[in-house]
Model the fold of this input.
Amino acid sequence: MSSDQPTEEPAYDDRVYRSPMATVTGVVLLALLAWLCGDAVVRGAGNIPWIALAVALCVTPLIVAFTVRPAVFAGADRLRVRNPFRVIELPWAAVDTVRARFSAEVLAEGATYQLWSIPVSLRERKKANRRQAGRLGLGNGQAKAPDEEVRRASADKIVEDLRELQERGASRPGAQGPVKVSWSYEIIAPAVVGALILIVLLATG
Done:
């Protein structure tokens, strides 16, 4: 007798959080760097082309690290934070809380990790608070009907979503284990090599 009932829990897709503004800024900076360094390579004389290549080798990974690279991946079992130079994997059971003060942060095992891809806008938060106060009728003594949800600051909404995922996922078997932190050598190594080459070229030129 066969059964059509699933025997395993359904798969959960990661929720991915990035900063669109940072991504756009990174693309613009990379295009500008490519234009400037490319022009120096084509038109430059002496050591200028080599200096331009060293600058590109050093600066390109740094631009990528601080703009395009940062992301937060939230799944059913764990939170994976990709910051400029590190990747932090946090099983939900190891997470104490997620908060947004002056920056978005996750606290786990006595350490605090910043969420670079979730910028906190104090201006946006103040505007959201003013809308909330207006909705409740503060100041005139009359409360307004809660006919629709007042829009909150995006960072606060994301943090609330992550807290809900943590509460639901902390007891899952796959959500157990310690926090793992790894360095992103694919970013660090070319930046360091480029900087060393640039120093040598400037010192000997």
About this structure: Confidence is low (pLDDT under 50) at residues 1-11, 143-150. The radius of gyration is 23 Å.
